[in-house]
Design a protein that fits this description.
Length: 196
């Protein structure tokens, strides 16, 4: 019987779905550089690339567990397609940042107006994106993970609960606290998230 390292991507993916968790580590190790370099070549930002890379493999795990991987002998191309879609989703959402609705009169992700496009507006918008990424990085890991999965990965809270191994209420709570903490940190650091 071949060792884990000698098995094909297809064999490893099937074995992982059948409960051999170590097989996923082999797949990740085998393809991590290619996937990360692909993301980095588009995004041109190491920290953002790392976030999208992590989101990519979280989505890969979710799809494998749900049996959504149709083997055509092209595992790495499938992973690269997921990475590409997440990268495109990031840039699409970055233009409006309005996916997450929060309670109250201020929504931290609806701070960008898409109808103005002067040079000044673009500079301010770029700074706001940078500030939001900074705020996200300040969050505790479990809150940051839920926020990234929800906002950038577009996963439902039910899917997030399964991926993170917690209840839906816990995932919702982590999201709520992430937003509260981002607002608090923005106030403490005097970060202005407004185009006006």
């Amino acid at each position: 019987m071949p060792t884990t390292e000698q098995r094909s991507d297809r064999e490893l993916a099937i074995a992982y779905t059948n409960g051999e968790k170590k097989c996923f580590e082999t797949l990740l190790y085998r393809h991590k550089d290619r996937v990360f370099n692909y993301i980095q070549s588009i995004v041109k930002d190491v920290n953002l690339s790392e976030d999208i890379f992590q989101d990519t493999f979280i989505k890969v795990i979710g799809n494998l567990r749900r049996g959504n991987y149709n083997d055509e002998g092209k595992f790495v191309q499938w992973v690269l397609r997921i990475a590409h879609n997440l990268t495109i989703d990031y840039f699409r959402k970055a233009g409006r940042m309005s996916m997450i609705k929060t309670e109250g009169d201020f929504d931290i992700f609806s701070v960008l107006n898409s109808y103005e496009d002067s040079i000044e507006d673009r500079i301010v918008r770029k700074q706001i994106h940078s500030d939001i990424r900074f705020l996200i990085k300040q969050l505790p890991e479990e809150q940051r993970r839920v926020l990234i999965l929800r906002h950038y990965g577009n996963f439902s809270f039910k899917e997030i609960a399964v991926m993170t191994g917690v209840s839906i209420n816990t995932a919702l709570g982590r999201m709520r606290y992430a937003i509260i903490n981002m607002r608090r940190i923005a106030e403490e650091k005097a970060i202005v998230l407004s185009m006006k």
